Amino acid sequence: MDPGSSSGPASSSGSGLFEVPIRRACPFDPPPGLAGLRAAEPITRRVMPLDGTELWLVTSHDLVRRMLADPRWSSTVDGGLSPEQPLHMTQPEPGMFLSMDAPEHGRYRRMLTAHFTVQRMNRLRPRIEQIVAERLDAMERLPHPVDLVAEFALPVPSLVICELLGMPYEDRAEFQEAARTGVDMTASPEQSDAAMARLGAHLAKLIAAKREEPDDALIGELIREGALTDGELVHISILLLLAGHETTANMLGLGTLLLLHHPDQLALVREGAPGAADELLRYLSIVDLVMFRGAKEDLTLGGREIRAGEFGLASLSAANRDPALCEDPDRLDVTRPKTAHVALGFGPHQCLGQNLARLELEIALQALLRRFPGLRAAVPLDEVPVRENAAIHGLHSLPVTW
Amino acid sequence: MSAVEATAGITVVTVNRESCCGAGQCVLAAPAVFTQSEEDGLVVLLDPDPPAGLRDAVRRAQSHCPTRSITVR
Ligand code: HEM
Ligand code: SF4
Asked: Molecular function (GO) terms listed (chain B) (predicted)?
């Protein structure tokens, strides 16, 4: 029997292939069927149910890392999440280095690495602590129940990005609103296009102001370094916003819900377990079914022959629960030594903002749990609305009380 | 080639700044051995011949590095 057959019927595309299992039965766990595939056939031909594209689904930790580190697998891909936009090779906008390959990717990445080092991010700590404390103060004043996603998980990362980019205080509310709609996968295409246009206009205004008077925040410094055009700066800013906003927000929302299910682990996070952020990232793998690549040339992976032009999908959630990665991978243990998890990707595109993400998660979760020691969900845990089929896995809302 | 190498001692660590993407995994794993340059954010080797007590940390840095820019002999 096909090990993935529990995931759904054979595709209707006529290829006779089974589908990629994409639906999580439990919001914290990989879609059922992936574990069986990982054990039996860690690289296998499947069809994406969302857009009908046939691709190579890769599920083991070893093969996922090999694939993501291999420059013959191109990142210049787009689509894959709807029938209107099937997976295809693309020509990215200048500055959108997430979708570029070497050498263009490296040129942009290298301009940014100095601004995202461990040391640099640690210098942002007091500002992040202040942003978090202000949001917790605001939450305290609200009538119960409070939606943790709207009042805490979403605003914290967007305010941190405002801080990083150097957005003036008076513009932040409008910027946040545009950003929220722009990255909201449930918004209609018209709504998100309009929001992205407003966002672009905001950023263009910000960049013009910084050209006049460059400050010490990221945009000001990149302008002073002098190598980027305004168009590139806008796209880099949008990339940072898209990559850093929803991801961190969903980690905060879903991470809190996960901890509410595991009171012993919650207590350890409140006490400041140093490895908690990485273990939560590993366990939840919120970026999962969007790690697409396209083969630039014929190659072999895991004994399978891949032809130039074929697509691949690295399942980060399956790789992060691979018994080859760590002991007892399906157990949440915030005290485990840091694993070589792939929740932040692998290879040259591994998350640029990872040290900011770790800092935000550590500061925000610890402060939340300390401020509200009696924090609990205001609805039964299994009634919390989960985002289905979203590019980034998370919650719509999380009503809480304390 | 931009690799930095040291030949003395038991553990010999090498880093490749050409392939490094500045993720900082090595700094998290072994901050006494690796840092990131303030100039370009790429890896800088602080101790090419770390003491035996840091061997596991250096191995972890090597295995977590996303661009396989660290070699240990
Ligand atoms: C909190 C959770 C986060 C998760 C789970 C996450 C995950 C990821 C993953 C899996 C990739 C690799 C994408 C690929 O290879 O195609 C990536 C890339 C990236 N991330 Fe993150 N990220 C997070 C937070 C952030 C933050 C806070 C920022 C910045 C402010 C950020 C900025 C970026 C950028 C710019 C890239 C593209 C890097 C490149 O292409 O070289 N991320 N992230
Ligand atoms: S872990 Fe690897 S890629 Fe990251 S900074 Fe260190 S050497 Fe560079």
From this structure: 3 iron, 4 sulfur cluster binding; electron transfer activity; iron ion binding
